[in-house]
Amino acid sequence: MRVEQGFGTGAQIVAFYDPMIAELVVHGADLTEALRMLRVALEEYKVVGVNTKIAFLLALASHPAFVAAEVESPYVFANVVAPMLSNKYNLETP
Length: 94
What we know:
94 residues, two-stranded antiparallel sheet, mainly alpha, 2 strands, 9% strand
């Protein structure tokens, strides 16, 4: 696992900056291992001061159809994003 970021502790992110401030990269022997490592990393990932999509990514990486590599964008919206928007999950985490 590695984190690629352009900011360090105490840096200020201005409103006009690209919304992708960091990238979490994981590798595994296969998809199952890579997704397990991704879920662990997302559960431990801490970002303060800005909203993130960590809860969304964790829900997506844990969804059975995503794990089985049986998803496309419409499926993700209907089965992951829509439930989050209906407050089943919190889409953004502070």
